[in-house]
Specification:
30% helix, 522 residues, 16 helices, 26% strand, alpha/beta
Length: 522
């Protein structure tokens, strides 16, 4: 941070667009100075090296200031997703052993209720409010000295992220500074990010994608980032053009939103947009093809988890158009790419052994970006690292190219696999067909309880209009899938169940198919 302060000074670092379209610009020197002062304020409230600081906020420069202040202090930031329910927030607050809460005033009441009477210091964090108390307090502090670079600091906890599981209590993923530097540096190198690059963040910064890809990475590279309060298909491309953004990171859901809105991309490529990073959710070949065909903008598909800091692999940037299309379209699933240098990847069977190329198994990862472990959860850690690698819980396969590089593919979550008559079915394979069916705007398959086969296949669908009937979709699926895989029933809906980061929650809608538990289909 000290080097960036000296090198980049008044260069723009963080540009922020509020919901009302207002624009703020933070230079490197101002941002770093305020981060150091905020770190001192945290110190005055009892936080220090090894402390955990909860950050209850949303996409805003104050949130990013909170992260960097914690890291300067050697403290661990614990971001909250304020769209979660009160029960989950209460669990995280009581489980994370925090010494302090940084909170925007609009969330103070909810945090107070979630604390359930626990005496935890709370700092109101609103630099842009009508009451300038927070900013005045920060400005009144002496900047914290820059920490000395040492190996101990690199192994210091810096981010505690709670995973968005579909059942049970969330698990706290413990990341250390070494993880952030390793992943951030490899993302920088892979995508050719330089001080002249401008990136854009439309994803929530409580998640590692928004934090690592579009804040830690550009800071390491000495580049700039355009942060949005919220994603808007109406202003997505126009802001890219106006700010000359080179790279933006999204989840597949946002690609679908842009297509649905008919967003106008005029001027975006001319202004310097190179490609769109896409991951953190299920991308189908159909959606990728529609987006790339409509806009002529390459989707750089990748994959990673909170447990691996963020990304573990990407498609190579320098593929020809023919090669890119081959890896995105020719295997039934779009490739998630090649492992980045800071980690190794493999495909293992249930006993932890490598499986041959093309054969499905569990995606496993090891390297400098892999988490320290799940916080206070020995059972989960034992399961996750049973064979010396981190077991992702995702099913996939790999194919080698002529250069010997392994291109990886994800076929679905192992725990979301549909087990019909003892045969495992990959949800994404069925999703591909559902989304090609006439009259389907978007859809997913759902494995539901059935007395004949244990589980059967259903489809949850957003249709293009009310004239679309179940029979049209079922007949199309029957033409393109074997009987074991094709959906037997369709339920129409207005929205698909996704987390705040765009991951489908199939298990949360199984109950919608309960009336077909005793049904039989030929």
């Amino acid at each position: 941070m000290q080097q960036n302060d000296a090198t980049y000074g008044e260069k723009p670092w963080l540009i922020y667009y509020g919901e009302d379209g207002s624009r703020m610009n933070w230079s490197y020197s101002v941002f770093i100075d305020v981060s150091r002062r905020l770190a001192r304020l945290l110190q005055q409230h009892g936080a220090g090296r090894g402390s955990r600081v909860v950050i209850a906020s949303h996409n805003h420069p104050d949130t990013i200031l909170g992260y960097f202040a914690c890291w300067l202090l050697g403290a661990c930031a614990v971001p909250l997703n304020m769209t979660e329910d009160d029960q989950r927030l209460a669990y995280i607050l009581t489980n994370c052993d925090a010494s302090l809460v940084l909170c925007r005033s609009c969330y103070a009441e909810r945090i107070g209720m979630a604390l359930q009477g626990a005496a935890l210091p709370l700092i109101d964090m609103d630099s842009d409010s009508a009451d300038p108390q927070f900013y005045a307090a920060v400005r009144g502090c002496e900047p914290l000295d820059f920490p000395e670079a040492d190996d101990d600091m690199l192994e210091q906890e810096c981010l505690l992220v709670y995973t968005s599981g579909t059942t049970g209590n969330p698990k706290g993923v413990v990341l250390v500074q070494r993880n952030l530097f390793a992943d951030g540096q490899d993302i920088t190198d892979w995508h050719g990010i330089t001080p002249d690059t401008r990136m854009m963040c439309v994803l929530p910064v409580h998640h590692v994608n928004g934090t690592i890809v579009t804040h830690v990475t550009p800071f390491i590279a000495g580049s700039s980032v355009v942060l949005h309060r919220k994603f808007s298909p109406k202003t997505f491309f126009s802001t890219i053009a106006a700010e000359q953004v080179g790279i933006v990171s999204v989840v597949p859901t946002l690609l679908a939103f842009l297509l649905e809105a008919g967003a106008d991309a005029a001027g975006a490529r001319e202004a310097g947009l190179r490609h769109i990073i896409c991951g953190a959710g299920p991308l189908t070949c159909e959606l990728a093809d529609r987006f790339e065909s409509a806009y002529g903008i390459r989707v750089l598909h990748g994959y990673g988890l909170s447990e691996t800091t963020c990304y573990s692999c990407f498609l190579p940037v320098d593929l020809s158009d023919e090669e890119h299309r081959h890896w995105m379209q020719d295997y039934g699933f779009p490739s998630i790419g090649v492992a980045i240098p800071c980690n190794e990847m493999a495909i293992h069977d249930a006993a932890g052994h490598d499986v041959p190329d093309g054969e499905r198994g569990e995606i496993v990862i090891r390297g400098r970006n892999v988490m320290l472990g799940y916080d206070k959860n020995e059972k989960a850690n034992a399961e996750a690292f049973a064979f010396g690698w981190f077991r992702s819980g995702d099913e996939g396969f790999r194919i080698a190219d002529r250069q010997g590089r392994h291109f990886y593919f994800i076929t679905g979550r192992l725990k979301e696999l549909i087990i019909r008559g003892g045969v495992n079915l990959a949800p994404l394979e069925i999703d591909e067909v559902i989304n090609r069916a006439p009259g389907v705007k978007a859809g997913i398959c759902v494995g539901f309880e059935n007395n004949m086969y244990g589980e059967e296949v259903g489809a949850l669908v957003i249709r293009t209009d009310d004239s679309v009937r179940q029979e049209q979709i079922l007949n199309f699926c029957a033409e393109h899938l074997p009987a074991s895989k094709r959906p037997k029933v369709v339920i129409f809906t207005e929205a698909l169940p996704v987390t705040s980061t765009g991951k489908y929650q199939r298990n949360s809608v199984k109950h919608l198919f309960a009336q077909w538990k005793d049904a039989q289909w030929r």
